[in-house]
Amino acid sequence: MEKIGLLVETIIFSVENIADGRRGLATIGATEAGLASFMNGLLSAQVVFTEVYDNVANDIGAVVLVEQVYLTEERRYCRDTEKGVTASMTAGIVAFDDALRALEIAQDAAAYRNAEATYSHLPEYRYKGMPKDAFHVACLAAATRLNNTLRTPGINDIERQIYDQRSKNMSAAQGAYLVIQQSVLANSEV
Questions:
Q1: Tens-digit pLDDT profile for residues 16-30
Q2: Who's near 81: CB < 8 A, 6+ residues apart?
Q3: How far apart are the first and last CA of the chain?
């Protein structure tokens, strides 16, 4: 838990530096300090996103939590006029709450098997044969949002690497979660 706390603190620090850097870049006379803050924030965020990716098999929840905290902090710096961005971030934050609950339930085999019985077996409600529950929905939505952002012109290479890493994190978390689902549901006759 201590490790998660450090990752969360680093993400908060990263977003603050990115926001301060953007303000500095937009202020005459503060461009150099702004750039330094911006780059420091981006680089520290990249370290965290890479670290949770490297450990996704051991701690799927960390991937989701770090992404959720990043969105929460980014939303704090949105302008009042950015209603669409704020709404998208809010939806992502709520979806990650749902994903963390789904992960918790999936780790209780009996509870998850009971929950699975309520999921539709139609293909559009399945992910690789498993229930497309809140975890999959959150990861798929986040990956779509991140991939759409990657198509935005003017993103610098480091920002692009971070968006790409975050998208990879969602895919890796989904893959690790799929293994949990398969394991729990394969033993359903127990």
A1: 999 999 888 888 888
A2: none
A3: 32
Token output for 86: 């704020």
Q: Residue 35: which of 178, 182, 156 has the closest Cα? A: 156
Q: Which residues of 68-85 are buried (b: 16+ CB within 10 A; e: fewer)?
A: bbbbbbbbeebeeeeeee
pTM for the model: 0.91
* Dist. CA 69–CA 186, nearest whole Å: 33
Residues 73 and 11: beta-carbon distance below 8 Å:
yes
Q: How far apart are CA 63 and CA 71, in angstroms?
A: 12
Tally Cβ neighbours within 10 Å of residue 131: 22
CB atoms within 10 A of CB 143: 18
CB neighbour class for 114 (10 Å; exposed up to 12, middle 13-18, buried from 19): exposed
What is the b/e burial string over 42-65, where b = at least 16 CB atoms within 10 angstroms of the residue's CB?
bebbbebbeebbeebeebbbbbbb
pLDDT tens-digit series, residues 93-106? 999 999 999 999 99
Task: Report the length, in residues, of the chain.
Answer: 190
Backbone angles phi, psi at 137, to 5 degrees: -60, -45
- Helix 31-54 and helix 2-25: axis angle, to 10°? 150
